[in-house]
Each structure stands twice: as structure tokens, then as C-alpha cells.
């Protein structure tokens, strides 16, 4: 399959590109810079210069592909306004990509987050949240999945709050970055809230499986660790960085504060049983041992 990938040089995307190439697919990937283009070439993919906001470029990439994996998301989301802008940009990109595939029965796999459900681990059948700072992403993913009724094999891989590789990435990575800036490994609340996690290389396998075989209109959970207590994550980071660990106001984390404070475990039982996905790479707490002081 010739696959068009957006976001192909990020933590998840680079793993997805490698996974696709290792299993006989060819890859055309969006590249927003010369450095990204070179990284894609070095990996064995063909770069297509452009950004997520270049809708004509996205349309051209999807038109020449047998399938699409949409991963790109702006990194400029340090405040509520920029986060809303990034979500709107992503929504326009998914709408463009999906429209190209209408009536073709070709697959498109997009990314979203696992939902949170009070009192239990979220499952693949739980709906995405329609309120809150990232509700716009839920609406755009839901709209894409609805294209299954119009001849698009649209699926979504729901990612946990931390996608990690070599000790970096996701919400745990944001804790690390903030700790280095402030000199404190801070966490919101009492730290008993749980965050699910997955190794990027395991997540990449699920994206490939969804692309190859998942039915249209379905959502899958790329969850290896159902939920680690945030204070346990912070404790490992404190030891690795040689910094004190303590609770801090959730406002310290900007627009992500309310999400950081939530208890949000998630299950992947259905995904494993239906698609045969089985994570094999290190857990989050094991991988954080790679964090350097």
C-alpha cells in the first residue's frame, strides 16, 4: 500500500513511518522543513513539502495514496487561544483528507485521545468528550468516522496521555521539561490520578493494523499501561533528575492543567482481542529510567 502520512517525523509519526516501511508499504510523508524532508529520506520515505495548513498539498498527497494516516498537530499550543487554533487547523486538515477519499473505500487512520470515564477505565466504546479544552478534536474525529457511511474506511487510534520512547514524550515528557525549568518535579493534586501510556513503537504497530484491516467507523485504544499514578511517574523523574517532588497548583500547567489533574485510566482489551495487537516494548516507568539529569 502507498500511504500518505502527516506528522511523520514526530515521536509517533517517525515510529509509524518505520513500521510501515518494515512491512512492505511505501510512504509519502508531509515535510514542513528541509530537516524533516531529509529525515524522511533517510528513513526510506518520500517527502512532500508543506505544512498541515496547506490544504492543497494535503489534498494532493491523499489523491495519490492508497491510504492515509493523519498525525500532524501544531506544536504551538502554550495557551488556550493557540490550542484552539491548532485544533481548528487539525480539523480542517482531516476534513480535507477525508473528502478526497469519499467513495473510494480507501482507509484513513487518524489520532485522538482516550476519553475519561468517572470511576473506571475508559473503553473503546466510550464516546470522546464533547466539552472541555480539546472537545474540538472529538468533533472532528467523530465527523471523520462518520464518513464510513460514504465509502471511506475511516478509523481512529486513541492515544493515551503519554506516548514515550527513550524516556521522552507525552504528558510525562511535559513534566520533565517543566521540572528542568523550575527545579521541581511538580504534579497537580494529590498525585493519585492515573495516566495511561504506550511506547511509540507499540503504538506504531496499531496504526499499521488499523490501516490494513480495521473496519470503517471504529476506534481503537493504543494503551499498554492502563494507568500509572502521577506521583509514581513524578517519583521516578525526581530520582533521575535529582530534583524534589511535590504537588503544585494545576494552573502551573497552563491549558493542560485540568487534564493533568484528571484520573483517566484506559483499557485496550477489545483492541488486543479484535486486532491481535500486543505491546512488547518497555512500560512508561521502565522507560523513564532513560531520562538523563
From TrEMBL:
<dbReference type="InterPro" id="IPR051783">
    <property type="entry name" value="NAD(P)-dependent_oxidoreduct"/>
</dbReference>
<dbReference type="InterPro" id="IPR001509">
    <property type="entry name" value="Epimerase_deHydtase"/>
</dbReference>
<dbReference type="InterPro" id="IPR036291">
    <property type="entry name" value="NAD(P)-bd_dom_sf"/>
</dbReference>
<dbReference type="GO" id="GO:0005737">
    <property type="term" value="C:cytoplasm"/>
</dbReference>
<dbReference type="Pfam" id="PF01370">
    <property type="entry name" value="Epimerase"/>
</dbReference>
<dbReference type="GO" id="GO:0004029">
    <property type="term" value="F:aldehyde dehydrogenase (NAD+) activity"/>
</dbReference>
<protein>
    <submittedName>
        <fullName>Nucleoside-diphosphate-sugar epimerase</fullName>
    </submittedName>
</protein>
<feature type="domain" description="NAD-dependent epimerase/dehydratase">
    <location>
        <begin position="3"/>
        <end position="213"/>
    </location>
</feature>
Amino acid at each position: 500500500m502507498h500511504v500518505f502520512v502527516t506528522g511523520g517525523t514526530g515521536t509517533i509519526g517517525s515510529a509509524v513511518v518505520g513500521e510501515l516501511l518494515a512491512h512492505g508499504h511505501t510512504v509519502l510523508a508531509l515535510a514542513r522543513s528541509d530537516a524533516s524532508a531529509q529525515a524522511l529520506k533517510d528513513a526510506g520515505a518520500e517527502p512532500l513539502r508543506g505544512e498541515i495548513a496547506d490544504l492543497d498539498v494535503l489534498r494532493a498527497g491523499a489523491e495519490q495514496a492508497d491510504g492515509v494516516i493523519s498525525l500532524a498537530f501544531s506544536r504551538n499550543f502554550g495557551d488556550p487561544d493557540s490550542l484552539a487554533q491548532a485544533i481548528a487547523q487539525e480539523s480542517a486538515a482531516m476534513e480535507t483528507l477525508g473528502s478526497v477519499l469519499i467513495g473510494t473505500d480507501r482507509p484513513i487512520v487518524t489520532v485522538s485521545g482516550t476519553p475519561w470515564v468517572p470511576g473506571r477505565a475508559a473503553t473503546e466504546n466510550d464516546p470522546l468528550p464533547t466539552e472541555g479544552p480539546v472537545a474540538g478534536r472529538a468533533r472532528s474525529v467523530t465527523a471523520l468516522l462518520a464518513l464510513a457511511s460514504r465509502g471511506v474506511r475511516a478509523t481512529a487510534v486513541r492515544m493515551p496521555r503519554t506516548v514515550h520512547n527513550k524516556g521522552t514524550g507525552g504528558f510525562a515528557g511535559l513534566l520533565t521539561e517543566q521540572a528542568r525549568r523550575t527545579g521541581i518535579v511538580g504534579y497537580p493534586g494529590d498525585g493519585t490520578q492515573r495516566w495511561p501510556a504506550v511506547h511509540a513503537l507499540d503504538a506504531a504497530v496499531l496504526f499499521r493494523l488499523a490501516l490494513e484491516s480495521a473496519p470503517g467507523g471504529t476506534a481503537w485504544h493504543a494503551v499498554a499501561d492502563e494507568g500509572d499514578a502521577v506521583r509514581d511517574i513524578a517519583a521516578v523523574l525526581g530520582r533521575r533528575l535529582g530534583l524534589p517532588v511535590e504537588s503544585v497548583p494545576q494552573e502551573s500547567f497552563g491549558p493542560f492543567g485540568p487534564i493533568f489533574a484528571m484520573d483517566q485510566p484506559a483499557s485496550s482489551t477489545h483492541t488486543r482481542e479484535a486486532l491481535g495487537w500486543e505491546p512488547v516494548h518497555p512500560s512508561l516507568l521502565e522507560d523513564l529510567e532513560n531520562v538523563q539529569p
